[in-house]
Amino acid sequence: MNTAARRIQRIYLGLTLGNTLAASFIWGVNTLFLLDAGLSSLEAFAANAFFTAGMVLFEVPTGVVADSWGRRTSFLLGTITLAVSTYLYYLMWQLHAPFWAWAVISVLLGLGFTFFSGAVEAWLVDALRFSGYEGGLEAVFGRGQIVAGVAMLVGSVAGGVIAQATNLGVPFLLRVGVLLVMFVVAFALMRDIGFTPERSVHPLRATRELLSASIDGGLKKPPVRYIMLAAPFTAGVGIYVFYALQPYLLDLFGDPKAYSIAGLAAALVAASQVLGGWLAPRVRALFRKRTTVLILSVVVSVLILVSLGFNRVFWVALVLLAVWGVVAAAAGPVRQAYLNDMIPSKQRATVLSFDSLMASSGGVVVQPVLGRSADLYGYPASLAFAGLIEAIAIPFLFASRRQHAPADLASDSEVAAAASDAAAGGPADAGASEPGPRPEGQP
Question: Model's pTM, two decimal places?
Fold first, then answer.
């Protein structure tokens, strides 16, 4: 990396650190918080489903904000929206609000996160390319995941311990405070580099155009389409499992008030993210194709979730949870790099937001279904069901692999060579997507 690229990476890592720290204060206790507010398991996960429904509803409009008004503007709006909605969550917990109120504010929480999804990643990739960085994206995304894992480790442990020492509402107030600090940091440091927002188009027209562009750059490209179609099953299951582990582990531990144990579950996933982020470029180097990593990660995840469904030993559950987290974390940067190498710069934020929309759509359906199964059959059985649902993603990943996209190859040099072959009618699939273009003037 040159000096400019290193500075961009530092800002990206700083934003990732602050955002993840803020979010993770509640991750270890969120399900317990909702249950303590008087919601049933079904209602708690239905509230989470409304959160993901908010993400589905607002992904494309906020992608328009990122591409039309700038990625910095989108980030700033996200911090404020998320801070306000989190504080409203705290007030509803104090008032034991009815379910409909939780549903409404959960949608607002989803809106806050959609301002982030796609925008920060698009800002990073465009700025790095503009600075002259030509290295692999897995390494940068892997470092980001390590930083996020450390922040999640600190935040989730602190949130669980603080909740046990005080009450379940205090971690939510801590999140609000850190988000306000991040607003100031982003306002001072974040600038759109290598990307010029297009503000001349009317918002509704821009929404239609960018939605069309996201479909053209996403669903209409077979290798991208199949990756996106797998996302509802992997992401929908992932978010359910993460929050279901809190009551699951407390039940195995035998103390429903041991909130620090719930924080430990999130912390273990966080530590796994750190290790997985470090492993990502190394695991990537072991396989010629990126899709091999993605397929193997889902297969292992399915086996672990089914095993958790039959396990009744607390420490065994922790070991399985750690392996589950490492496998998912190691595959994450590989998936990010695979998608980014097939997306044009101009619509990068919108297409990535559309991918997030596809992932969130799975959570809308999967969470209440699995939450109801937890009410009827218990959390262990619901985890086994979750594994079976995630297995549906495997055929889609194989379908993406069969498209022979240049971005699926194992190194930047191979990607470039395959793209040249495809353009010349060579061995690569002529219909496969090519990596996004570098800014003009860069070698």
Answer: 0.69
